[in-house]
Amino acid sequence: MNITIYTRQDCPLCLEGISSAVAVFGRDRVTLVDIDLDLSLIEKYTDRVPVVETSSGEIIAEGIISVRTLRECADPTDSTA
């Protein structure tokens, strides 16, 4: 499963969420998007980051993101998760 993490600079929760996502999905399956570079993303996610979204557009976690939560959402047939 590939995921996107919406994040921003100087966000401790974002750093923790990224670390958890990489632990579950692997670095090559995690794409980071800095919301501060896009006004529409700032409006959508400013108080919600970090936000984890699947490639199908489903939000699977936001705010405090744990390895456990991500594992529960991971594809059980995916050997990297």
Which properties best describe this structure?
single chain, 81 residues, alpha+beta, Glutaredoxin, four-stranded mixed β-sheet
Give the overall average pLDDT.
92
The biggest beta sheet is recorded as: 4 strands, mixed
- The CATH architecture term is 3-Layer(aba) Sandwich
Can you tell me the CATH class? Alpha Beta
- The number of E-state strands comes to 4
Approximate shape? globular
Annotated CATH homologous superfamily: Glutaredoxin
Can you describe what's shown?
This protein has three helices and four strands. By secondary structure, it is α+β, with helices and mostly antiparallel strands. It is globular, with a radius of gyration of 12 Å. The mean pLDDT is 92.
Present the secondary structure layout:
Layout (H helix, E strand, L loop, with lengths): L2 E5 L4 H14 L4 E5 L4 H7 L5 E4 L4 E4 L4 H7 L8
Parallel strand pairs: 1-2
Antiparallel strand pairs: 1-3, 3-4
Provide a quick synopsis of the model.
The protein is α+β, with helices and mostly antiparallel strands.
